[in-house]
Amino acid sequence: MDKFLNDMEREKPIRFTNQQLRIATDNYSNLLGSGGFGTVYKGIFSNGTMVAVKVLRGTSDKKIEEQFMAEVGTIGRIHHFNLVRLYGFCFEKNLIAMVYEYMGNGSLDRYLFHEKKTLGYEKLHEIAVGTARGIAYLHEECQHRIIHYDIKPGNILLDRNFNPKVADFGLAKLCNRDNTHITMTGGRGTPGYAAPELWLPFPITHKCDVYSFGMLLFEIIGRRRNLDTKVAESKDWFPMWVWKRFETGELWELMIVCEIEEKTKEIAERMVKIALWCVQYRPELRPMMSAVVKMLEGSVEIPEPDNPFPHFMGGTTIAHPVAESQTYNTTSISSGSSVMVSNSSIVCATPVMRKYEIELASSIV
Has UniProt tagged this entry with the keyword Translocase (predicted)? Predict the structure, then answer.
């Protein structure tokens, strides 16, 4: 009974003291890494549990408190195998910190950009599936939908068996399921992974995470950054380069450049199609993450994707459904070129779109 009660107590975040965390981290002597909002240290409790202690720091107390509430208020109330677990927190005058489970193999970016040959395509595919499951849980299975806003390799942590867990909920926002669109105050996310609508005057939905996952998938496919000046094809930006190979039926060139073996060719082709669907310019054309999971697992057929980058093709006008006749003249973050967004007639969803839960918005609110 004592063990049962202790287990039940651990189901909710524990409030630690500054002194407890100082002892666990050996006075913060083992640095794991640092980011925009804090520094992470390795620690171990007296019962042998290894942890990662994230100490929040920022330019103002308000910012730190917002970050703290975003993380504890989201990951602190949910449990999923593919989400990093929050053991507890400390909120004292001299220390604001979160205590997470320790992830022995660090973040995914290490294996995509620095130790490229460590993980084979089969394992990378498993990591992609697990990551998609974690995001699908946030979007579709929580009582309140949670939008992460910052899906990228650095926020996908790997345990000792290389199981992926989505981490860093500092930008996360809870969204009532009945309210499909949310209000944004300023841009969020990381350039290169952030969806176009985060920088444009359009409604923001959970589909921005789908876009970011698509960009992550491209980096898994290439085992390189999407923009890498050291690689020749980077002149085209890797996702665009992949689309051009796909459009002309020359994916064999991708297999050669990315050193993809024959045995994993089918997996790579599947991931290419899914990535192209996920990064569609129009959010309503991107699939739900639960559909992405099924596609990655190979349990459903993947329809041929449309061009996700028409807005980069020589200043092409992009048709967006809008409530009234209106035009936005905006600047594309990725290309630096002006993009015109004008009104158009609304097109009904096709059978293929309905089958794969690809939504078509009726209007912009």
Answer: no
**Of 61, 109, 150, 178, which is the active-site residue?**
150
Sequence-distant (≥ 6) Cβ neighbours of residue 344 within 8 angstroms: 319, 320, 321, 322
Give SS3 for 28.
coil
- For the segment 299-315, the average pLDDT, to the nearest whole number, is 83
109 is catalytic: no
Domain segments of the chain: what residues? 10-101, 109-310
Report the top-level CATH class of 10-101. alpha beta
pTM: 0.80
Domains 10-101 and 109-310 share a fold: no
> Greater confidence, 118 or 330?
118
Tokens, residue 87: 């053991």
Q: What is the pLDDT of residues 227-278, one digit of tens each?
A: 876 665 445 789 999 999 999 999 999 999 988 999 999 999 999 999 999 9
Q: Could you tell me whether strands 86-92 and 38-44 are parallel, antiparallel, or unpaired per DSSP bridges?
A: unpaired
Question: Band of the pLDDT at 178, cuts 50, 70, 90?
Answer: low
Tell me the C-alpha distance between 178 and 144, whole Å: 9
Average pLDDT over residues 200-211: 87
CATH 1.10.760.10 is held by the domain 109-310:
no
Provide the CA 109 distance to its chain's centre, in angstroms. Answer: 13
- The verdict on whether residue 3 carries a ligand-binding annotation is no
The H or E element containing residue 328 is strand 328-331
Q: Which residues of 192-218 are buried (b: 16+ CB within 10 A; e: fewer)?
A: ebbbbbbbbebbbbbbbbbbbbbbbbb
Please name the helix (run of DSSP H) or strand (run of DSSP E) that holds residue 175, with its range, or none. strand 173-175
